[in-house]
Each structure stands twice: as C-alpha cells, then as structure tokens.
Amino acid sequence: MKRPVSLLLLFVFAAIQIYFARVPLSHQVQGSSWIEVSRQAGGLVERQGRYYLVTPTDAFHLSANQAHITATKDRLSWVDVPEPSGAGVWKLAVGPSSLPLVGVGAPVYPAPDGQSVLWIDGSTRIGYLSMNGEDGMRPISSKMGSIQSAVWAPDSQALGVAGQGPQGFGAYIWDRDGNLTPMALPSPGIGIAALGFSQDDRLLVGLKNGKVLYQGRGVVSLPPLSPLALAKNHADILGETANNVIFWQNGTASRYPRPDLKWVGRVAFSADGHTAATLSQSVSGGWHLLIYGSKQHLEISLPFAKDAEYHLVGFLGSHWILVTVPSGPHHGTYAWWVQG
C-alpha cells in the first residue's frame, strides 16, 4: 500500500501505541472480513522500498503476507526546519538512518529513495531542495516560480511540478542536471488536477477539464473525467464520467457502472499498479471501500458503516488496503485483503 492525495500521509493523533499480531480470530472485526491491525491510527509512507506506519511518537516498519501483518519498531524524531521566508516552520519526521518520512506544515515531498526532500515555502510557494550529506537547501530552479504541487519520479531522479515556470503556468519536469522542461501548458483558466509518473519515469498530467496528458504520447484517449486521480509510479488513471467509473492501466480502459456514491478523500493505487481504491459515502451516511481493477470492481462495506469517520491510508504492497478511524469508539487501523 502506498503513498499518498499528496505524499503527506501522516494523521497526527495523541497517545498512540501500535500492536500488530498474526491475525487470530480475535483480531477480525466481528461479522466482517476486515482485520483490526492496530487499536490506534497512523499514516503510511514508503521509503527505499520499505513501508512505515508513522505516529507522533514512533515509526514501525511494516511487512505482510496473505495471512498477517507484522511491525518492527524503529526510531523516530521530529526536526523543526525554518522556512526561508521566515513565515513558518516545517516539521519533518525522521526515521532510522536519518530517513525522511513525512512532513507537517507547508508541503514537504521526501523522495522515494530517501536521499532528497523538496520543500515548498508556505508563504512564497518557492520550492527548495535538500539532499542527504549536504548542508542547507537551495532553490530547485531559478526559473521556477511558485509551485502548486509536485510528485517524484519512481527512481527519484526527476520531479514533476505544477506551477509558474519560465513559459507560464503549467506542468514542468525538473531533473538532477537542473533542466526544467515544460510538459503541459494549459489554456488560461484550466488548472492542473493531478500529477503522476509511469514506471519508466514519464510524467502524466491530469487537467481540470478532465483530460490527461501522457509525456511522449499526447492526450490519453478517454472522455473527460471528474474526479480523476493518477498513480505516482504506474501509468494508471482512475476517474468518473456521468455514467461510468474508468480504470485506465497503461493503455487499457476498464469501464464499470458509476455507483450512487460520492468519493471521499484520496485515491490509492497498489504497488503493482493493478488496483485502485477510494472511500465513498452514500446519502444515508453508509461508508464503502470502492476497489477497481482491470478485471473486477468491488464495493466493500466498512466494518462500522455509520458509526465512524474513515480515512484511506493506502496500499501495503499490492493486496492489503489500510484505513483508519481517527477518533471515537472504533478508532484504530483496519485492513482488507484484495484478491488477484
């Protein structure tokens, strides 16, 4: 399960202790197939191919198979980093071996390999880059103005950024050589809804008119989608039309009837790119987990459908989907295993 609508997947809660076990019957939610994996809530991030559950006090390295989820406690510290404008302070959660995990405050984007961090100043929206082994931070590019959002390429060697660049507002690709290349320059009034990358580090740009641009391939042949979401490390798209939900995977579109349910929160994509998931809520208040792939779609009732507020944490690998309940009598972290 992965990352994150942004890479800030941390839910900050007080007095958190995490307990993981082999999933005996006592850890199954009564009357459902959901597994209670924690009695408290946290945020999930992936760094250097490893998954971490992050709480205000601890980081846990997670591993899983089809039967159970286990956790190994790692060190966690919080570092205050002043913004260059002086307007605020970033708080960065640092794990083992000085591994940057997640930031709180203005946007912070740690690279997947854990060796670099993109910082967005909350006042100026200027982007700054820091790298392990180097002191301080520097502007990502003298040609790049304010940055709206960003996403790292899977190999951590490039960034997709949406913001004000040398050719106007649009989506640009920055690489380690300092090059800043325009990818999409939408017409005035058309914003950028989402950024993503394919496995071979090609940028995908979702526009607010519902179209998706694929670097080197042009406009993706799909009807306008709203809402729409892009995977960060696969050429995957999930979106809705008036009548259908479309899951597009590297050139192949699967269409399913659109349910009478409103998406709530972020969309998560599995590690193998074969599945997307999001939470939804009916008019009556019932919660559902919507799961879409190339061969199936599922509507799963959450374990406490009307008595809780849920947040989608993401995928742990390719099959476990984790959700959290941040407060109330059912607060905790729960998991659902997706076959296929």
UniProtKB/TrEMBL annotation:
Domain of life: Bacteria
Name assigned to this protein: WD40 repeat domain-containing protein
